[in-house]
Structure of CopG-like ribbon-helix-helix domain-containing protein:
Amino acid sequence: MDVTNSSFLPDVPTKRERITFVCDLELRDFLEKQAGAEKRSLSNFIEKMLEDMAKQNGYNPPEQN
């Protein structure tokens, strides 16, 4: 199944922003394995990595309800 086709992905309602980026297949494979090892989705794993990096550089996220 080709999940790269955007018509495959359902348009799930969310208040969160969507970001699309391009990376090497080898990097994606690596990230998917790391996400699986932490029992996270690829999207959640990448978001957590980016948030951790942003916090280290001064990002102060809003409090969640």
